[in-house]
Specification:
Layout: E1 9-10, E2 13-14, E3 26-30, E4 38-44, E5 47-58, E6 71-78, H1 94-110, E7 119-129, H2 134-148, E8 158-165, E9 168-171, H3 175-180, E10 183-190, E11 195-199, E12 202-203, H4 207-236
Length: 253
């Protein structure tokens, strides 16, 4: 006799009481690490992620430096106490290496690396507690850490995971929804340019479901971006403005 599948949506509500489009509670705190160039702690649902940025600084060994632009190095690691899963063990593994690599591509596309050649920027994302969506939480926090470090970027980017649970498209998947649902799509976007900077998918989604997922990603990221800008204003006051309020980073007028 097969075990009955756990229901993820009951009477229109998810297991944590959210609606299908609701985000988990989010708290962002900037500048916690005094010896880092920039840092951010994000508490997103039961996730807790600490992101830190060091640099721009000298490249060692010297032969790795690029004379035309800065290089970006990323580290993604889950603390041994962050969760009960296999990837919660100490030390690097295939999953953490893969997430560090895709995060590196995100930051290479937003950091204005040509402004500080022959240097390196180190971005670290430490997962202190995990409950689904840690990669998008880490990149969302690291983007704020870059801003806190004063490193010029095209945009403060953010991400969210969407997917399918019990046949319904839902936003901001918890670990149960990630593990037991029919599909999971972590995505990172730049709202300023409309670019999709990271898109991964696990499971099966129809063409129509995929279109709905992307629409919900951008709607959710509008809410996340406002929380990011609020966190920056909390620390830096009225000096911090959204790029659109400044007329765009690349405008000369």
């Amino acid at each position: 006799m097969t075990e009955e599948k756990k229901k993820l949506i009951v009477d229109g509500k998810r297991l944590d009481g959210r609606g299908k489009k609701d985000l988990r509670p989010m708290k962002l705190e900037i500048g916690l690490l005094k010896k880092a160039s920039g840092s951010c702690l994000i508490e997103w649902g039961n996730n807790k992620v600490l992101a830190a940025v060091y640099g721009p600084r000298e490249v060692l060994p010297k032969h790795l430096e690029n004379p035309y632009k800065a290089i970006i190095k990323c580290r993604y690691a889950m603390a041994p106490f962050s969760g009960l899963e296999e990837h919660g063990r100490a030390g690097p593994n295939r999953r953490s290496t893969e997430i560090a690599k895709v995060a590196k591509h995100v930051f290479e596309n937003i950091v204005l690396t040509n402004q500080f050649p022959k240097t390196v920027v180190n971005v670290s994302m430490e997962i202190l507690q995990s409950d689904g969506g840690t990669r998008v939480a880490g990149i969302t926090a690291a983007s704020l850490a870059l801003a806190d470090a004063g490193i010029p970027v095209k945009d403060v980017v953010c991400g969210v995971s969407v997917g399918k649970a019990d046949g319904e498209i839902v936003v901001d998947l918890s670990k149960d929804e990630d593990n037991l649902g029919e599909g999971d799509m972590p995505t990172v976007v730049s709202l300023r340019t409309g670019e999709i900077l990271l898109w991964q998918m696990d499971g099966m989604l129809s063409k129509g479901e995929l279109a709905e997922c992307f629409q919900l990603v951008f709607e959710a990221c509008e809410k996340i971006k406002e929380k990011q800008l609020h966190a920056l204003r909390e620390k830096y006051g009225s000096v911090c403005q959204a790029p659109e309020e400044q007329g765009g980073l690349n405008d000369s007028g």
